[in-house]
Specification:
- The protein is 58% helix and 4% strand.
- The protein has 284 residues and is mainly α.
- It has a two-stranded antiparallel sheet.
- Helix 3 packs antiparallel against helix 4.
- The radius of gyration is 24 Å and the shape is elongated.
């Protein structure tokens, strides 16, 4: 639209397609489902300063070593301050990751909950076995440039390496015997495990994965659009690979032989399929 009002180009671009404003599709939740939605956002994974229940202890062990009173009295050294901020950012990153997964789809949220449970359980087993804990100091820098699916895979591998006694290159080993808040550290790890189990149980009881209201609304609107324009091509975007794969399974049932899935795996065959379906100048 900017080009059409530009005096240098307006004569060349008179036939540009008009883009309509976006339209929202609203999906309905039952009262129980709606209450659960609010609980996840406002209680389980809310900001800790606002009463959020997610402790994320395994991402901020420095807090339990002796830092709580130092933070309260602002007596952290420059090195300690950097360590505290770095781990606090990591914790906050993980908390927000789970919220984003929840808002993407109930299916991807369930997968993330299971992954986080596996990671947390593995870390707890390592602590109970060795009396130590280690956190990779380069973890924060490495995960920021990865997508969320890769982050979960990386964290899972990290926890499994810990149990195998393989420490990361840039690690700091914490001895729990030196922790001023040792009991609270273990309690908070167990609290997270209990909370993850509670959420998984609620997802199951509310049938939000197998009978996802958001997905049902999505399919219903797609069908309506394709009934109006049977030859229309519709492009669907998601931030997460597992949401894409979940939707592929759903869409294949309702729209057989009409679904083309791209998840970054651009093989020559896939590129040819994209060109064939979306490039107006393609010979076929």
């Amino acid at each position: 639209m900017d080009l059409q009002s530009n005096p240098f180009y307006k004569d060349e671009v008179q036939n540009l397609s008009k883009v309509n404003d976006p339209k929202e599709w609203f999906f309905e939740l039952t009262k129980e489902q709606s209450d659960f939605y609010d609980t996840v956002i406002k209680e389980y994974f809310a900001d800790p300063d606002e009463g959020g229940k997610f402790k994320g202890a395994i991402y901020q062990p420095f807090l339990y070593e002796a830092a709580k009173e130092k933070i309260a009295t602002e007596k952290l050294s420059e090195r300690e301050s950097f360590e505290f901020i770095q781990q606090r950012n990591l914790y906050d990153f993980m908390r927000r990751l789970l919220v984003k997964r929840f808002e993407s789809s109930f299916n991807s949220f369930e997968q993330s909950l299971k992954n986080f449970k596996h990671i947390t359980k593995s870390v707890l087993e390592f602590i109970e076995k060795t009396g130590k804990y280690t956190l990779d100091r380069g973890l924060l820098e490495r995960i920021y440039d990865k997508d969320l699916d890769e982050i979960e895979i990386y964290l899972k591998e990290y926890s499994e390496k810990l149990n195998g006694g393989v420490y990361p290159k840039n690690h700091k080993i914490y001895k729990l015997s030196d922790f001023k808040y040792r009991n609270e550290f273990i309690e908070d790890i167990n609290s997270d495990l209990k909370m993850l189990d509670e959420i998984l149980k609620s997802l199951h009881e509310l049938n939000l994965v197998k009978n996802d209201p958001k997905t049902n609304c999505f399919i219903r609107n797609l069908k309506f659009q394709l009934e109006k324009e049977p030859k229309r091509k519709i492009v669907i975007f998601s931030e997460y690979v597992d949401t894409v794969n979940y939707l592929k399974y759903i869409l294949d049932k309702d729209f057989p032989d009409r679904v083309l899935v791209i998840t970054g795996d651009l093989t020559s065959k896939k590129i040819k399929e994209i060109n064939k379906n979306f490039d107006a100048s393609y010979p076929e």
